[in-house]
Amino acid sequence: MVDITPLGELAREIYNCQRCGLYKNTTNAVPGEGNPHAEIMFIGEGPGYNEDRTGRPFCGAAGNFLTQLITSIGLKREDVYITNIVKHRPPGNRDPLPEEIEACKPWLDRQLEIIKPKVIVTLGRYSMARFFPGVTISRIHGQSQKCGEYTCFAMYHPAAALHQGSLRATIEADMLKLPNILEDIRKREQPAPIPIATKPPPQEARQLNLFGF
Ligand code: URA
After folding, report:
1. What is the Cα–Cα distance from 129 to 85, expressed in whole angstroms?
2. Can you give the residue ranges of the Uracil-DNA glycosylase-like domain (predicted)?
């Protein structure tokens, strides 16, 4: 069945994307997946081998760890939205080039416009650089910062824990900060309560008080 939602329409455009040369060596584009009304949007680097074969983001070993992290805060993958900074796999899993990231930018911009997440979680250096330019991940991971209309939260890429076991606990601890960040945003966005009109005390009571009784 054809998906006629805005994200479905966008995915069709991404499947046909030839804005840069990445599409030439791929099997599938990987637009992203998840809840179109997600409060949290995870943005990784780019599809790898498994993602290219299946057309789904984060479905290999790093993806399994990301799923565990999402579960650790009481959510399911279907509750959040997961995508990447580039939508086609860079050959041999090399890092995406600046011109490829730039060419892919309009897709991510449109995903953000449609989903309007409360928090953008950047996974790894490349998506971090889009929202937190000029910083190092070792300095800002686990911290949130306002980026225009969005709150952004930087995390190490889940694959980093697979290569460097000592980062696993850091990534898990950073993830556990997300529910509070989200709760604070929800509270800030709540409309201010309408003040309840206070009734002046009855005349008699006010007079008694004047005499100190
Ligand atoms: N790594 C990423 O950055 N994205 C994926 O989708 C899979 C692995």
Report:
1. 10
2. 31-176
Banded model confidence at residue 180, pLDDT cuts 50, 70, 90: very high
Residue-by-residue DSSP string for 95-159: PPPHHHHHHHHHHHHHHHHHH--SEEEEESHHHHHHHSTT--HHHHTT-EEEETTEEEEEE--HH
Compute the distance from residue 165 Cα to the ligand 1 centre, in Å: 18
**What is the model's pTM?**
0.90
Whether residue 97 has pLDDT greater than 70:
yes
User: Which numbered atom of ligand 1 lies nearest the CA of 57?
Assistant: 6
What CATH code is assigned to 6-193?
Answer: 3.40.470.10
Q: Which residue has the tokens 């889940």?
A: 158
Q: Which residues pair with 122 in a beta bridge?
A: 43, 154
Atom of ligand 1 nearest to the CA of 157: 3
Assigned token pair, 102: 């730039």
Residues in contact with ligand 1 by the CB-under-6-Å rule are 44-48, 51, 57-58, 62-63, 84, 159
